Amino acid sequence: MTSSLPPNSSLGPSSRSDLHCPLLQTMISHTLNNDTRVNLAVVSVHGVVSALGILENGLVLWVLGCRLRHKTVAAVWVLNLALSDFLTTLTLPLFTHYLLKDHSWNLGGPLCVAQASIFFINMFVSAFLLAVISLDRCLLVTKPVWTQNHRTVSAAWKICGLGWALAAVNTIPYFMFRSVVLKQDGRKLCYHDFALYSSQSTLHTDCKVRQGVTAVSKVLLAFVVPLVVIAVSYVCFVLELRARRRRLESRRQGVSNGKQRSSKFFRSLYSPGGQKSTQLSQGFTKMVVSVIATFILCWLPYHVFCLLEVMAQYKTEIADLVEVSLPIATTFTFLNSVLNPIIYTFSCPNFCTRIHQSLGVLFEGLVEEVGPLVLVTGRMRKKDLSSSTSLSSPTPSRVPRIQRDSQGSINLLSFKSRPTNEIEMTKCNFIM
């Protein structure tokens, strides 16, 4: 796609001419739908979504970043997801202003480039983090000893930093080719200008190659590849849980009388407290699955129409469909940033009875972590907690150390001390 800019613009060679890619030329010649009621409804929806998105994600950032007493790996994942969504929702008022001004971008080129860059960074970061969270869940179950030694908050921050860096690199093409285009009816369009840095002789090839590469790459890197990682991770996750359940049942059935004491202790890790913690772990897994499902539903239409946009270069009859449907699909992607905080919050059990409680405690329970294999109940009465531990003089508690043998079975090796002030009262228990 191309841009028609003032003669003194220095964005690139084609910015001094009227070169346009065919699809953008079609968009330049089209006029606005004058149905005022429809346009007003769209603007109103965007305004509400903008306000909700900024408030929700800002609240999540404040709670996880400032009010959380102890950062966990889970907190790092959710914090970075919320940061990505918050940046996106900050650009929603710009898009709402564009709709309010009869679909005309009157905010200038820099804000056009900034809005598009943040949109695509969020797209890549969200997909990357959801894939990482799914892989993290898988490793917690399939490689418990390895995760116990290597799964740290600092490592999680490094992985998130890598995700942001990769997203920034993948956003460079959209940063370079974003421009403000003047339409025939006088309105301005903020869109991809793939004729920039091109010439008359190479325009046709440049338009096809640039548009095709960017569309296919973002579909692969921001949708298909992450979904493959997510699917494989959860298949391994489920298979390992089933295998572990079979091993546990086999151990229960084959235990001898001489080992009944140790087997009772082993079983006590799973029942009844273990069963409760397993349910809590399943609760967090359901939250992650809900976020992933929301991501798919919100981004799938956008990626489909991006591919159709490439096909419109060869089948001009679908160009009108793309021009009308792609903005609607883009609106659905913004909903993802608004729905995620709602999913985080309502994943807490008994939310309605706890909404009056401290939000810090609420979210701390959401991202609380316990050992991946020793499943303990995270709930303690406040009076029990205060009587058994003191922040000024912590006393050690005995925590079992666990290792797998060569056949993958679980062995209880020993107990090591851990200050009991690491144990916190849980309001919303999820094991991650």
From TrEMBL:
InterPro entries, per the entry: Formyl_rcpt-rel (IPR000826), GPCR_Rhodpsn (IPR000276), GPCR_Rhodpsn_7TM (IPR017452)
SUPFAM superfamilies to which the protein is assigned, alphabetical: Family A G protein-coupled receptor-like
Domain G-protein coupled receptors family 1 profile: 56-344
Keyword Transmembrane helix carried by entry: yes
Keywords: G-protein coupled receptor, Membrane, Receptor, Transducer, Transmembrane, Transmembrane helix
Superkingdom of origin: Eukaryota
GO biological process: inflammatory response; phospholipase C-activating G protein-coupled receptor signaling pathway; positive regulation of cytosolic calcium ion concentration
GO molecular function, one term: complement receptor activity
Subcellular location: Membrane
Chain ranges passing through the membrane: 40-64, 76-96, 116-135, 155-177, 219-241, 284-302
Signal peptide extent: none
Pfam families (UniProt xref): 7tm_1
A single GO cellular-component term on record: plasma membrane
Topology class, membrane: Multi-pass membrane protein
Family matches, as PANTHER family: CHEMOTACTIC RECEPTOR, PROSTAGLANDIN D2 RECEPTOR 2-LIKE
Family under the similarity heading: Belongs to the chemokine-like receptor (CMKLR) family. Belongs to the G-protein coupled receptor 1 family.
UniProt name for this protein: Prostaglandin D2 receptor 2
Annotated organism of origin: Anabarilius grahami (Kanglang fish)
Upper classification of the organism: Eukaryota, Metazoa, Chordata, Craniata, Vertebrata
